[in-house]
Amino acid sequence: MKQQWLAATAILAAGIGQAAAWEPTKPIEIVVPFSAGGASDQMARTIQGIIQKHQFTTQPIIVVNKPAAGGAEGMLDIQKSAGDAHKLITTSSGIFMTPMATKLALNWTDYTPVAMLAQDSFLLWVNAKSPYKSAGDLMTAAKSANPAMKIGGTSSKREDNLLVFAMEKQGGAKFAYIPYTSGGQASTQLSGGHVEANTNNPAEDLANWRGGATRPLCVFAEQKMAYTEKVADGQSWADIPTCASQGLNVSYQMLRGMFMPGKVGKEQQAFYVDLFKKVSETPEWKEYLARNALVPDYRDGEAFVSFLKADEQKHEKLMTEAGFMAK
Amino acid sequence: MDDFASLVAGFQVALSWHNVGFMAVGVILGIVVGVLPGLGGPNGVAILLPLTFGMDPTSAIILLSSIYWGALFGGAITSILFNIPGEAWSVATTFDGYPMAVQGKAAEALTAAFTASFIGALSGVVLITFVAPLVAQFALRFGPAEFFAVFLLTFCSFIGMGRENRAKIIASLCIGFLLAAVGLDSISGDLRMTFGSTELMRGFDFLIVVIGLFGVSEILLTVEEGLVFKGKQAKIDLMVVLRTWAGLPRYWATLLRSAVVGMWMGVTPGGAIAASFMGYGLAKRFSKRGKNFGKGEIEGVLAPETAAHAAGTSALLPMLALGIPGSATAAVLLGGLLVWGLQPGPMLFVEQKDFVWGLIASMYLGNLAGLIIVLATVPLFAAIMRIPFSFVAPVILIVCAIGAYTISNSIFDIWLMLVFGVVGYVFKKLDYPLAPMILALVLGDRAEDAFRQALLGSGGSLGVFWANGLVATLVVLALLLLCWGPAGDAIAALRGRRRTDPETAEATR
Predict the structure, then answer these.
(1) What is the CATH number of domain A22-119+254-322?
(2) ipTM value
């Protein structure tokens, strides 16, 4: 009799234990520190669609864009929302670079890392009619160009600007870096022949590549990309050589991940880690990765934190060398 | 004619029962969204975007673009009735729309605005239907130097065409430039003039400034005049619509000019705002009744509305054909396209014919549905003007405050709105024009970016603004427009000295 009681209590306790696992109680807000239509926004809206389609949560997901001041508006919002477990923020390398370039009192260690979802590659693109066949051709031409050869990118003192700086340092040429407001604009300007090259992500120049207006020369990575399905000109992403193989030894990738505000509970964090793990395993997510040629690289917990630490150091070094740190 | 067959097929897609239903729902939602300042088209579309993920892409884009049309129509309502423009391109509509409403001609002003929007949008759609690929190619010729030249043209036409004191126009323009410079400078990546304040980091949002300068200051002025209701009791019925229509053919030249300006500015991305101001400025200069502009001239409502909507609609063209959004709403729609698995760009017209032509057909039908719905509501909205102002004013103020708060969920913005209300009041008392300040605030940082991008590329040489036929033509046109006004005044002054005509003397001041 007594044993039966014990068993019953145990079952009850287990039941309570399960009920105690945290669940969101109101709509979940995903803050996108970039404007609507950009790569981060597309990722957030894809995730929103996947979560709602598979009913991973009972609460609706809302995507909010807070793009002002190079994403600092969204980051400050999360900073102020410490303890709010119904908020998430999409992040890229901007999580290190915005504070470094502006001296704003922001630091990723004040947030709660949830999961890293992918890494984004950068490519060297030229106009389809351009005479350059490889990064080597382009660098040779750049050395004797006067005025300096124009390379377009997104905003100033950010990823594209760093890449162009690295190209200058590696190849001994001087470029005129033209910051545009989005990768889409940089791509359009390249197809109109207003710049000689750009350093867009795959997704940002995909449409113009397929439309026969631009073409990739090489990818800024140690290895070629993995996607072998034909995209344009009978080429796949995997057919694009690395820049290093063309004598331009520069490689750079950008993380794409999710953070929560600081001071949230362990079970709350665990809920979202589990959520994004599920998202990353859906066929829709894999399709999204393939469409945007993202490098699948899911990390959570300690693996994510150690990646962040190493990545922050790398960026600090790059930003200091380029002279992009705010004084 | 292949395109024509595609368009007919598109109409068949758009005219299915459920798509017509989505169209009506979209337009009504859009009007509601457009009437509330701060919510605006982009937000309305963004809020509803997730709901459409489960839908078939063609129905989804029909629903969302109908919201866009509805919001465009709705934006004119608050501009005319309360002097609060809901979107940047409705600012010019307030110049004559609001005075008309105050004179008891709200119904005429609304009818004129809606009809002009329709005509403008229709010209834009016709442009998209028949010359899409050609126009898309033209847009590609716009580099930083060309963009700057377009902005220069807008600023110069405003100074040259303005009838206010030119020194005051320039002063107002400069304050606008100053305000536009606050926040993150996208060329250097540095924060400017934020004085360490995180609130100022966002810069001055155009809507907050506009709500303050136009809406709040108007309330202050009215309060000063002792809350007397200025509007006349006009008899309002649906016949007003027909009577206004009967008078419209007289203004064909203005409508045509604005439509052309609008379409031209629309395909050069980001042109809707510039288009509305230019449409207004040109009408003011070329109209026989130009002197009455600003005092409630129906042409002053027709011109900017036609231009803005011709531009707004044409702006969807670069989005579809090139993947560059021409407006904020277009940007959200663009995000939607990607989520539905459609890649905007040159291939869209080839690979997704059904979708593209369904969308184009829905532009015709959505605008028609929008026009019918808004015209039916004209008496209803115009009747608001009969309510004594002392009742309406607090409601307007609350709506303004909510609008300002919603933009980025910040209480600071409400204070900012009130500050700009006082600024607007002082400006009006001192007879400084507000429009140039708004124009500079909206286009100032874009003009600056384009200018600096052009100089970065040319290694600092100003020759880049003279380097090809397109940019040179734009710059020459801008300088001509700039000198047109002063030159005209000088001639008038010379004649005036001989004849001492009191009217010209008054106009030149």
Answers:
(1) 3.40.190.150
(2) 0.83
